[in-house]
Amino acid sequence: MASTHCIPDTRIDNLQKVSDIYDWFDPAVDHIVRQHLKVVPGTSRRTWEFAMIFLALHRAGKLHGTARGLALGAGTERLIFAIADQVEHVVVTDLYQTDSRWVGVRTDNPQDLVMAHAPWPVPDGRIRAMRMDMRQIELPDDSFDFAWSTGSFEHIGEDEDFIRHLNEVHRVLKPGGVYAFTTVVSYGSESHRIPNNYYFHPEHFADLLHASNLRPEPVFDCAVREHHFNKPSLETLEDFGCAAADAQLHAVVAWRRGTINVANLAVLRKDDALPKVRPEVRGFAETKARLWREADMLTRRLWTDWQELKPHRSGTGYVTGPQYFGSGTVEVEVDAIDRNGSAIEVEVLVRRPAPPLGRRVMATLQHDPGDAPLTFQARADHLYALRVARKDGGDAGSVRLRLRRARRSGAQLKPVAATATAA
After folding, report:
1. Residue 316: closest CA among 225, 196, 396, 402
2. Of 318, 321, 399, 413, the residue nearest 363 (C-alpha)
3. Rounded to 5, what percent of the chain is helix, strand, coil?
4. What are the helix (H) ranges across 212-257?
5. Whole-angstrom distance, CA of residue 183 vs CA of residue 200
6. pLDDT tens profile 349-375
7. CA–CA distances in Å: residue 247 to residues 116, 185, 243
8. In what order do the strands lie in the sheet with 307-309?
9. pLDDT digits (tens, 9 = 90+) for 267-290
10. 191 and 158 in contact (C-beta within 8 Å)?
């Protein structure tokens, strides 16, 4: 069993915070990544979450040879094994089942699945895996010295589900127990209440923590310091045909379809004698203003020249992922191959980044080779996707799509009656 006693002192005073590139250079975080997670340091959001949870539990004195821990929504994550090295026993839970919508936990044998992902040998009996809903923890009261969860909280449901989960954790922790978990903060004007995938406004998140029976740390630090690697960056390059680059490039501050998102850590304690104090959110307004200026600059650079999008098969046609263009005219070039002479129809689908997520057809058109670029008017509070199909319903063959912010007039899309469809 490796010891955590040799972890260097951290320079991070308050661990209840959002991620920041400077955290990766903290001596304690660097040590945990190298010696306990046993990976090469990098800017992976998940590595930051693992290291910060480990550090929070270490600082609280919970990683020792007689401690019992509970992992919630943990799948087969590497942190399970790093923590299991430090304690007597870990119970690992998730929605393990053969038809789970989460591909990584599809199994009828959670124990075998988890242990098959052990990156190094683990003593027999140290880890027990169980199927469990985070809103209903079917374990005895006062059972665990600590609990943790990595990027699962936002998937639980709605506000009542979040509070129910926190109160269940309170119930199963021993007095003085600690819950460290990560989720996602959005630098917008409100929480993005996407069903089973929330992006939290920090004030909303602070309200949820305060509404539970647990006691959070008194400050929630949402400041992101100025640095090149703290600028909003594309979260995924797959839409642009560069999926392989995703394994090498990780956004610290993610620019995702019109939203700015950052990982964050919450640290809560079961101590009913402490007065209930709502966490004070610090550094949000200033950081939000700067990040949005930088995101606007990124958007302008991205669409200044032609950008090819990689569409995905949808029936006999293709559809792109939703994109953010800001405000202005967008040009579209369509190159359809092997369409056997059939006319091509292009639909523009529009939706808001935040719910309601219902989408509608903004416009449709018939396109022939040699036509001037098509154009449509984009709004800064909407996302846009393109659907391409043959008018006769046949297979669309191969399709190339290129878009940019307009430099000249093109053939206008022909408006059609808006039709609501499922997101």
Report:
1. 396
2. 413
3. 25, 30, 45
4. none
5. 8
6. 887 776 655 666 766 666 665 667 788
7. 22, 23, 8
8. 307-309, 398-405, 328-337, 374-378, 411-412
9. 999 999 999 999 999 999 999 999
10. no
- Summary mean pLDDT of the chain: 89
Amino acid at 273: A
Cα gap 328→331, rounded to integer Å: 10
- DSSP structure string for 97-122: -TT-SSGGG--S-HHHHHHHT-SS--
H or E element in which residue 69 lies: strand 68-72
Q: Which residues contact 164 (CB under 8 A, 6 or more apart)?
A: 135
Q: Which residues contact 331 (CB under 8 A, 6 or more apart)?
A: 373, 374, 375, 403, 404, 405, 406, 407, 408, 410
- DSSP letter, residue 34: I
What b/e readout covers 146-174, taking b as 16+ CB neighbours within 10 angstroms? bbbbbbbbbbbbeeebbbbbbebbbebbe
Predicted confidence (pLDDT) per residue in 31-87, tens digit: 999 999 999 998 899 999 999 999 999 999 999 999 999 999 999 999 999 999 999
Specify the pLDDT at position 423. 38
Which stretches of 123-158 are DSSP H helices?
none
Q: What is d(CA 70, CA 76) in angstroms, rounded to the nearest whole number?
A: 14
Q: Which residues of 364-385 are buried (b: 16+ CB within 10 A; e: fewer)?
A: ebebeeeeebbbbebeeebbbb
Amino acid at 422: A
Rounded to 10 degrees, the C-alpha dihedral 111/114/117/118 comes to -80
Whether the Cβ atoms of residue 255 and residue 234 lie closer than 8 Å to each other: yes
Backbone angles phi, psi at 356, to 5 degrees: -70, 135
CA distance 199 to 187: 9
Cis peptide before 140 (omega within 30 of 0): no
**Distance separating alpha carbons of residues 248 and 44, to the nearest angstrom:** 9
Using CA atoms, how far apart are residues 157 and 221, in angstroms rounded to an integer?
A: 25
The model carries a pTM of: 0.91
Is residue 37 within 8 Å of residue 7, measured between CB atoms?
Answer: no
Maximum distance among all Cα pairs of the chain, rounded to whole angstroms: 76
C-alpha closest to that of 212 among 150, 274, 263: 274
407 vs 333: CA distance, rounded Å = 13
